[in-house]
Design brief:
Layout lengths: L1 E7 L1 H7 L3 E6 L2 H20 L3 E4 L17 E5 L8
Parallel strand pairs: 1-4
Antiparallel strand pairs: 1-2, 3-4
Helix pairs in contact: 1-2
Length: 84
């Protein structure tokens, strides 16, 4: 198990009630499962349309990406709005 930092942005942050957290997980899928269990269905709904990056990159192995101590998992929901 690796200790990783979750960074939550916009709607993910609002749904979770925090901007970051530390979790222990072996894979990205495990880390996201821990977050779903901790933050509930509203967070899970946001996660369904969010981009998830590990250390600033989209993981090639998706949820199977192996995590190591100190990795950063960012959950970035789609952004809407903007200037017209």
């Amino acid at each position: 198990m690796a200790r990783v930092k979750l960074r939550l942005f916009a709607a993910a942050r609002d749904a979770a009630g925090c901007a970051d957290a530390e979790v222990e997980a072996a894979t990205l899928g495990d880390a996201l499962a821990v977050a779903r269990a901790a933050y509930g269905s509203r967070f899970a709904d946001v996660l369904g349309s969010a981009r998830v990056w590990v250390n600033g990159d989209e993981p090639a192995d998706g949820d199977g990406a192996v995590l190591v101590d100190g990795d950063e998992v960012a959950v970035v929901p789609p952004v809407s709005g903007g200037a017209r």
